[in-house]
Amino acid sequence: MTSTTLDGKHGIDVLRDPELNKSTAFTKAEKEALGLVGLVPDVTETEDLQLQRVLMQLGHKTTDLDRYIYLVNLLDHDETLFYRTVMSDPARFLPIVYDPTIGEACLKFGHIYRGPRGMYLSITRRGKIKDVLRNWPQKDVRFICVTDGGRILGLGDLGANGAGIPIGKLQLYTACAGVPPQYLLPMYLDAGTNNEQYLRDPLYLGMRKTRPPTEELFSFVDEFMDAVQEVFPKCCVHFEDWTGKDAVHLLQRYRDKYCVYNDDVQGTAGITLAGMINATKLKGTKLKDEKYLFLGAGSAGIGIAGLIASAMVLEGLSLKEAQARISLFDVNGLLEPSRKDLFDFQVPYAHPHAPTRDFVAAIESLKPTAIIGVSTVGKTFTRQVIEAMSRPRHILARIGYPFSRAMQHRFARDSHEQMKRYVLRRIDI
User: Which of 169, 6, 18, 161 is nearest to 82 (CA)?
Assistant: First the structure.
């Protein structure tokens, strides 16, 4: 290093910038050039040696939440070493920095909060959103991951506690896809919460008011989207963990106007379709030959159903013929035309059938060859459900959020024991 500054910074300011700080890895020449002599130990360590220390310290932690807090603190001080740690063993660390540990971290977000990361944009700032976005220090933002905390994982409305989700998701962009972190902006849009527990919590970090009507929320998001186009014109907006109806409607609202993406609708659908394609290859059939029944009819279910229908159209069916091969079942029963509680995006899958709130009865009546579970309610793929699908070479896909690694292992064990005798392919996402 020949310059005496990094981004105009010198001395202690270099050590306080996690993008620049290398802690004990600065060379003798760098310390002298940057005014760091005496501010760090008089050694020059390799990243491997620094990683060894991190792994030792992590080994003293007793819970994944403690390890999560430690790694967040590391990120706040030494960004390079954080990503070096995560990618030294992705199978070990990705479940700590994101799913499933991120669920517990979000539930306790206001209690374990150490310092700001990303942006927090309140609905009270309407009319000034462009000015707020300009406060972000990076001017070339390529991805914003944004949530309103309305439906975090399978945990429901967490409000501002859901801010941990876009933070963690964008860490995966860097760790798994190599996207430089300076191009990424985690964003929480604060329009309140209906979670009474958090509204009463003195350490809650969001607005202490209930959520507004949909029209008011969408007006807020409209201004946000317009502001992003002006302030960060090269940016793609990634919507994450909104309520099901808002997730679908916002994607419909913006997909033909802006560069947008919804992971819960589109990402989950893409992975599930890939599993279905592989399962039909094993069976020697095509997607259009299968008959699908979903347990769950929210944003994930609708996204998967729509993509599978589109794939069947590519195989020669009309859209209506494809949709006719897909049925959905939610907390109020089978989607069918007599129901008055359906959203517009659910109506194409409401086929003539007697009303029923019994999922096993729906299986026995509809005789699906594939069932796809996307419900946030646990333990719904019961023994009775599995046995109702016990005809040869059927497909069962369970797509859900386990709250802990222990739950992941238990789900895998229980489902394996129940399914191995009956089904062709189990898909766990």
Answer: 18
CATH of domain 101-258: 3.40.50.10380
Residues 6+ apart with CB under 8 A from 396: 370, 371, 373, 381, 386, 389, 419, 423, 425, 426, 427
pLDDT digits over 231-253, tens only?
A: 999 999 999 999 989 999 999 99
Residue 64: what are its φ and ψ, rounded to 5°?
Answer: -65, -30
266-428 has the same fold as 12-88:
no
Which of these is catalytic: 31, 169, 283, 288? 169
- DSSP codes, 112-130: H--S--SEEEEGGGTT-HH
190-207 confidence digits (pLDDT tens): 999 999 999 999 999 999
Q: How would you list the strands of the sheet with 184-190, edge to edge?
A: 119-122, 184-190, 143-147, 236-239, 260-262
Number of neighbours of residue 347 by Cβ within 10 angstroms: 12
Range 12-88 classified under CATH 3.10.100.10: no
* Class level of CATH domain 266-428: alpha beta
Look up the pTM and report it: 0.88
Catalytic residue at 98?
yes
Q: Which 8-state DSSP code applies to residue 371? A: E
Domain boundaries, given as residue ranges, for the chain: 12-88, 101-258, 266-428
Cα–Cα dist 220/129, whole Å: 9
| Catalytic choice (68, 98, 173, 204) | 98
